Amino acid sequence: MTEQAIVKLAYLLGAVLLVFGLKLLSSPKTAARGNRLAALGMGIAILTAILEPMRDSYPNYFWIIGGMLLGAIIGWISAKKVQMTAMPQLVSIFNGFGGASAAMLAMIEITGLVGKSDVGIPMLAVILFTLFLGAVSFSGSILAYLKLDGKVKDSTLAIPGLQYINYAILLGIIIMIGYSLFNLPLNYSLMIALLVVSLIYGVSFVAPIGGADMPVVISLLNSFTGISAATAGII
Questions:
Q1: What is the DSSP letter of 29?
Q2: Can you give the pLDDT at residue 119?
Q3: How far apart, in whole angstroms, are the C-alpha atoms of residue 20 and residue 184?
Q4: Rounded to an integer, what is the distance from CA 51 to the centroid of its chain?
Q5: DSSP alpha helices (H): ranges in 25-151?
Q6: At what angle do helices 60-81 and 31-51 cross, to 10 degrees?
Q7: Are 180 and 106 in contact (CB under 8 A)?
Q8: What's the Cα-to-Cα distance from 53 to each of 4, 7, 19, 57, 164, rounded to whole Å?
């Protein structure tokens, strides 16, 4: 087996473990095991990402290790300080950050593709899907946190006909993605618009759902983050 094949298998294993681990978070009985599997999958992905592509770029290790340490410290302190009754809010915020990471990666890839006409449509579709789903997971998770924490009341977001507005926004997103796939080179302004509209859709998607159903929504958003993390791995 070649080195490249081993690398691809490692990425695939990491993505599968991460998504499966996030799925297990939907039940209190399996949440602990899901956390361990997701952490193992992310650990495999991180190690592979560090060791494989940067054999000749050792200074970059300092940036990666520094970011990991900073994130670990912030996560540890946040988790130690939060009360158990507020754990859903913390999970929602952390989940949103995962979606934001996927969306940021997609935007970075898009920046490198602007002006190029020889972009593969399948890979571009993966990038745009990652951008959309990551942005929805981020903004939706933040609103879920605000609702759970009582910072935003359901009555504040009671907009007549919101369901139809959501349909219209989703249709607009599909049109923007379809246009971008078949009208190369990419229009960077359109990509920014896709990001902004996707963030708006994440908010409008969660807005009509009552606070009592937020744990269910968070579970769904966890799945969105898992899928966007997996497609980010494909990128």
A1: T
A2: 74
A3: 35
A4: 23
A5: 31-51, 60-81, 87-113, 121-148
A6: 160
A7: no
A8: 10, 10, 24, 8, 46
Is the peptide bond prior to 185 cis by the omega test (within 30 degrees of 0)? yes
Segments in the chain below pLDDT 70: 1, 52-60, 85-86, 154-158, 211-213, 235
Place of tokens 């770029």: 57
Residue-level pLDDT at 1: 62
- DSSP state string for 186-229: P-HHHHHHHHHHHHHHHHHHHTTS-GGGHHHHHHHHHHHHHHHH
User: How far is CA 6 from each of CA 12, 48, 51, 221, rounded to the nearest angstrom?
Assistant: 10, 10, 12, 31
Q: What are phi and psi of 149, to 5 degrees?
A: -85, 0
CB < 8 Å & 24+ apart, contacts of 146-149: 147/206, 147/211, 147/214, 148/88, 148/89, 148/92, 148/211, 148/214, 149/86, 149/89
Q: Are 191 and 110 in contact (CB under 8 A)?
A: yes
What pLDDT does residue 54 have?
57
Per-residue tokens: 103: 């969306």
- pTM for the structure as a whole: 0.71
Write out pLDDT tens, residues 163-191.
888 889 889 999 998 888 888 788 888 88
Q: What is the per-residue pLDDT for 197?
A: 92
